[in-house]
Amino acid sequence: IINTIETVSYDQSTGLGGSGILDTGADGILTYYFQQDSAANILLNGEDDMVNSFENHPVCGKPWDCKYKDAWDNATKSECQPINLAWYKFRKHFELENWDKTDVIEPDESDQWFLGYCQNGYKSGAHYTAAPTTAAPTTAEPTTAAPTTSAPTTQSPTAAPTHLAIIKNGGFENGTYEWNARGDAVSIATSTEEVLEGTYSVLISNPNENWHGLEQDIKDDLTEGLYEFNGWLRLRNETERNMAFQLVINDNGVRYKSVVELSRFGSWTKVSNTAWSHFWGVMDINFNGTLTKATIAPVFEYDVTQTYIDYYVDDVSMHLYTPSTIIKNGGFEEGDIGWIPFWFDTTIEATTDDARTGDFSLLITGRELSHKGAAQNMKMDPLMVPGAEYELTAWVKLKNGTSESARAVIEYSDDAGDQSYYGSYYTVNSDDWTRVNIIFDHKVATGTVGAYWAIINGPSPYIEFYVDDVMIIPATASPTFQPTTLSPTLPGAPLEYVYNGDMEHGTHWWEECCGNQIQYETTTEQVYEGNHSLLTSGRAFYWDGPSQDLLDRLTQPGRYEMSAWMRIRDSSAISQAKFFIDKSDGGGTTYYYPTYIPQRSHLTTIYGDKWTRLWGVIDFEVSGTLNYVNLRFDLSDNAQFDFYVDSVSMIPYETDTILYNGGFEKGAYAWFPWWFDTTKVTATPEAARTGSLGLLVTERKYSWRGAAQSLTGLMPDDALQVSEYYRYSAWVKLRNGTSENFRIGFEMNDDSPRTYIYSDSFVVNNETWTEVWDVYRYEPNGTVRQLYFYLNGPSPYVEYYIDDVSIVPFVTPSPTTAAPTTSQPSYHPTTATPTVTDAHIHPPVGYIATAVPGDVKLGISYQGELLLLSQVITTDGIRRTPIPAGRSYDGNEWESVDPLLLQFDCSIVECSTTLPDVPGETVEYTIIAYQPGVLEQDQVKWRLLQQATFGPTEDSITEAQTMSESDWVKTQMEIAPTSHRAHYRNRVGTRLRQDAYGYGATDACDSGSRWNHYTFSKMDRGKEIIEELTASNTYALFIDGFARTELNVALETNLTWPWKICEVDDYVGGPVVITTSDGDCSDEMQTNSFENPAVNFVDGSNTASIDSAVLLDLDPFLRDTKILDSLSGPCTLAPTWPNFLRDSTDNSYYVSDRRMRLQNNDLAKDVAMSVERQNRYRECPIVPKTFMNEETCVPRIDCGAPVYSSTTFELNAENIRKFYTLDGLYVYKVDINDITPDDGYDNPCTISDNPHRFVRRQSTGGCLGGGTILDPSIIDAVTYHINEALQTNPDALAIDVMMTSTTASSASCIDESDSSIGAEFEVGSSCWTHSHPYSWSVFDLSVWTLLHPGNDDAYDNFKRNPIAKFAERYNNTASLEDSVTLVYPSWKNKLFFDQNRWQFTELGKWGDTVDFADLGVEVQGPNVADYFGATQIGYDGY
Question: Is the entire prediction scored with pTM above 0.85?
């Protein structure tokens, strides 16, 4: 695997390969590309053999190599540490969560591990105590590492201090004195073109490397200590580049220090040609030995893709840093010197718009999150005393907004870890300046200090605010802010395992997860219950979130119920969340995800505009000694959002019922939609039959959608006993609709195929509650993996209430017990099998009796009763569907019922029969007693129409109620017959998975064509979306180069585009599931989703070509779909897809929907058809003559194939492409890869009736190496025949050579080893390759886009149509020639093409000149005929 890895640059500012994904590279990279088989082998996923991974650093190596050298200096360790440590954290987390591994290395508390995913597959690698984190490049020349980019500053400069000056002539007023050129061919000269201050700057010309420029030797004046640096850079002619000033020191090895390492997050600053960019910073200089070199020089960020360009330098200074205050430039009178945005995308600017004191304050804008603001690094401030207490104060005022919260924050990191101090939130406004502050201890450092940030932040995202008069001073005896120390009491419930789950005791017992420096605090911003919730912010990884240590409490195995409420801080955001138990014991690491749906996703969708409950049950296990047990929260699909948590609980799960929460008094907990699309289940008082709550089921797209509960994992282990009977019941009432069918049942997944057990249908209404019930015999086969209980049945979009659902053991009534009354048919079992004596079998109504094969006596039914006898066979433990055998109803004698057709003897008041046995099977007979309820008149008519027509409608029921059943039948007999086939053809709308113009697709211009308002459909599965910003500041979503819609805001997803479409729900607002272009759609960790947008266009480049039309609603109404009534002008729609129209009624936009086109089959209408329509559709009303059409059936010459005039054209890329763009045909040059002896084809010396195909793959320069090395007689013979073929067409690109026995050269061509198969032959300056007989032939493969056997497999695996994709991608990624070339897969047997060749129309060879008149009628479309100048001159036959 390692040998196949393709490394890409990992830049700390732009992420993996410039993708913007930071810290760990591609999120989920392991399961993108690897899987683990049953033998624990690690295998590559997919067809690609390349894996994008972390950078192959020239010194650090690949993280998975576990490379480490004791001889590395601290600077090198610091350079490599972030890359390797990030890889380790990511690898460990992802493998623990997704792979069953037992050899994972755990870091101890004091060390940081230096390892990755090792090549040998075993745990390996060295570790070291955390090294100093001062970044330093490791190359001999200036660094090529990629530090973080900061935004340029452009304020006016301040005069460089003159005391203790280290740099001489920094203003270049004395020419280039003290400065030297750095690099060959570099020119440095003073210039007056662009000057910051004074008369001159210096111009650097012709730099050829990133480090070329100028430098000054400062070795003689440099001592150890803190130094302050200032310098200014400006480009001469390029828009923007990243640059830095670096100090190069040689003191027992070359080291590089960025001069801005304390003032910014990284070394690089953006420099432009429109303004001067300021570099300011503080450096801590210390020597590791004798100083032999010290120079200061500007450099470019290393980038192999760009050349380096001329630039200016001015006002460079460096002197000992002797600050008078802890915070530098806290009044901002020196611009923004010393301050940085917190974080990168935020903008800070010194401004005179509004200052509290002096002339300047700092304005913070572009804040996407509330924790973003302004910061200063106090890492090496010499004025702070370790262990002393200090106060950070600042004054804040809003620029926009009316009332917000702001605060002061201290963030600190050293070798002991990260620590944050959060000040209280203060209410700030746009009218007055408000003071914010925090008291903190300046801690004694452990090892090396990584960062020491003083931060001002807090207002809501995008709120702009001013900061002024920032200072840090020793704290007074009575500080302004004094945090309160809480001593919360433990929860009163003794079985509650989560302490302070209501967050009313501050952050006590809560901590950040995984050692990352996130912020967590209690807040009143959003609260589910009580007065506080827990807010988590500052997240860097998707697994960052709050955690609680349960090791001292959760020690016993068992089943536990877990609950929590979550909400995203951004009110418009949606994300996937989970909370879980992270446990490590003697059995390794295990994650327990609470769920009430076994083997389903443990993710829950949470929102920013409401609270969402996460609830479920876990089976906690303990193996050996527990190492840790943590309760954790995270957002599994991104690290972007802050989120709240409230009301967290974990208690033992206890229940004595089979069904959990059947009365819904706990809300909808344990219930879920059946299935997971639009269907919603909501606990609400309006749905209550008893108690205070019931369940409302809405937004059902199909009749079988409803509500369900997974009994597996929720009910007690012994709740259901094998072979016992259970009564299951639910009370149902409709919310809308008047009368519907309803049923309930079970889905079981055990060792047999998945089975469904369901009740009879019950008629329910919207006026009264109806009990739907039945009896279930629990007979699993082997291990039960899933057992669902579900309720469904009404028509789509009918809403209904459910309450008082139960599953209880069934108790058989005694013989004296009256039969239960029921308004609907059902049955229940008796516990004993009757013995056939003189007694007859007649179970009470609503119950079931059983009998074994043999002679039996059966009681005759009563009036209003139905008895049904059925045979039940059990094979290999699987109970089959009952087979009807006989019946008795309304007091009538028993009679045979198909298919078993038992014979009955009813000569006395009872009937007898012999129940046959089935050899080798377990046979049982059931007798069920039904008592149907009294039907209303409309129900009687409904049953009549259900049995005698294609189905009842409201109108037909109304009509039937006006007459008796017999009169209705007579009326029907008098009506003229209608054709169901014609009715069907006028209404069918089957969607085609592929454009099939000319092969059955509806034309977009036709009246009745279908148009959708939603952007994406299931037909887009496997295609890729690209997002682009338009000139109208909208975000256009493109597929195959066509804009499909425009959005007002960019899509929010953590995936890098292009995005591959996995699943689509066909309506506006439906989920569109996406992954990356090479992502795995079946892995939910690699997918994300967004709402299917409406088709909408704003930008003129998209709206200009869209015509207006009259669109009508479908009848019956179908959401987000209309049909075309008429166009506002001539049809300009293309034959290929997609096409768009604007609805003239409301100016909304619609995209065409590809549907199957069927011809009219109504014989009463004129069958005449226009020539234009026949030509366009290749259709004619051709039917066999029958007695029904003999009067109208006539032979017609205009139904023959059209005949065209002669006109020639070349089969080149431009002309072949016209078949697709003009007539929608998929015409391709077929490129079948070079053949080998294993493919089964003859070598070119073979004399036969089949020619040998040669293609000119190289027109100039001959073959590499002069061609394939072969016997000279073979080369001579083949080149002779190629030259012969070229005599008639010297420019041919593909030729056929025929070896004949009469040619001397053919006779001398002998190749018994088949070495010439696929060989290259040099003829003149061209290189000819022996190829497949049809390679470079041009075929019409349109029918293959529909019939190719791999189409369904591609669709099922989220891939594009394997034939159509070449033509469709032209507007996106393909060249013109690529769009007309079908590359035959190298792995596929080439004989497969030969076997299916008969289905394709051949046009000729690539590069040949052909006559349009000679082409097959399949490709002689009217539009290409016009393009090539051919005219129709007649018809060929009838």
Answer: no
